[in-house]
Amino acid sequence: QDNSFEQFIINYCNEKLQQIFIELTLKEEQEEYIREGIEWTHIEYFNNAIICDLIENNQTGILAMLDEECLRPGTVTDDTFLEKLNQVCATHQHFESRMSKCSRFLNDTSLPHSCFRIQHYAGKVMYQVEGFVDKNNDLLYRDLSQAMWKANHSLIKALFPEGNPAKINLKRPPTAGSQFKASVATLMKNLQTKNPNYIRCIKPNDKKAAHIFNEALVCHQIRYLGLLENVRVRRAGYAFRQPYEPCLERYKMLCKQTWPHWRGPARAGVEVLFNELRIPEEEFSFGRSKIFIRNPRTLFKLEDLRKQRLEDLATLIGKIYRGWKCRTRFLLMKRCQIVIASWYRRYT
């Protein structure tokens, strides 16, 4: 109910995670269809980049203004920080304040004078401005760090490396907000190099109890998690996509024309393969570099056929090996029989 600086930076991290979720699941997927030349009708969705910009913009972002208030000379209080927010963010559609220039908020009695409200992707959150400046400064006096570094206990000494006289830095230490922003940027850079899989958890009730289903709560979560847009994209799109070369390499054994070797382009080989298997045309589309399969059942069918074909090939290999082994033994026995017979006839 009472949100301060800590909850603000946690929600900022949630916004960034939601943004990368949108980038990877909604925006990038639709752009891939267009890039591959697949016929596609764009599906609208809410992009929370505007909220992230409100918080992290280097000039007009809330974190930038908070750092500016912490570093500027003169009397700095939480109220002066809120005044600065009202001046810079007054016209932003996701920022609300009692003192904002936007007249529609002047009569909002649910918003106290010492608070501001941000409309996050998950809903509106009100923040108490009290303590923002002190918590963002996050300063530890230099002489205290040096005293702790001189302790005999190794753990305490390790916790305060900045107290080492050899590493004294006269520069002002970075604020908590800027450190957190840098950490979030590192996290985002790391996630963008991966291929993440998402699991969305829906809370059926706020009581953490079994056999209680709050329909309004579930619908609210489905809306703000962007699941509706995600389902629309998935249903209208394709469940599976793969470059032509690996697709042909995996399934070429299902067609006599492509097995064991296909000499032409990979796309042509995939077309021959799918025509041979008589897969309905509405179940797949050919992109510039990938094959797109619409329904999972088509992919399951291919995998089942491949599994059966592998069993048939294993049986064939076993049959040929057993024939070779028996013939080799037969030829050896035949040679031995000739030698024995010749020696016997000579003896007789």
What is the N-to-C order of secondary-structure elements (H for helix, E for strand)? Answer: HHHHEEEHHHHHHEHHEEH
Assembly type of the chains comes to single chain
Q: Tell the overall outline.
A: elongated
How would you write the strand order of the largest sheet? Answer: 1-2-3
Tally of DSSP β-strands: 6
CATH architecture of the largest domain: Up-down Bundle
Describe the protein.
The chain is mainly alpha-helical and 348 residues long. The chain has 3 domains: 1-138 and 174-237, Methane Monooxygenase Hydroxylase, Chain G, domain 1 (Up-down Bundle); 141-167, no CATH class; 245-347, Alpha-Beta Plaits, CATH 3.30.70. It has 13 helices and 6 strands. It has a 3-stranded antiparallel beta sheet, covered by helices on one side. Strands 4-6-5 form a 3-stranded antiparallel beta sheet. A hairpin with a 2-residue loop joins strand 2 (115-120) and strand 3.
Task: Walk me through the topology.
Blueprint: H1 5-35, H2 49-56, H3 62-71, H4 78-88, E1 95-97, E2 115-120, E3 123-128, H5 132-137, H6 142-149, H7 154-159, H8 176-192, H9 215-224, H10 227-236, E4 240-243, H11 244-251, H12 266-277, E5 284-286, E6 290-293, H13 296-347
Antiparallel strand pairs: 1-2, 2-3, 4-6, 5-6
